[in-house]
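We read letters as residues; the integers encode the fold. Take this protein.
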Amino acid sequence: MVERDPRRYRGQDEEYDCLMLELVLSAIVLGEPACELRAALVESARRKSGDANAPAGVVLHSTLGLRSES
């Protein structure tokens, strides 16, 4: 089960939780680039915020933090 305590978790939705879990497993555990998952995460965040023009880099940075390309 995913953390749902509103004091500790911003309370996204199940789509976000699934995307984030799959992204963590693919990118961090397996070391895959996970480009499709990153794009899906950006689109999900854009839909939720209502800002279809939110820059992908900003969305990814706000959800994943800094990422080394190496």
Q: What stands out?
A: The chain has three helices and no strands. The chain has a mean pLDDT of 82. The helical segments are 14-29, 35-49, 56-64. The radius of gyration is 12 Å.
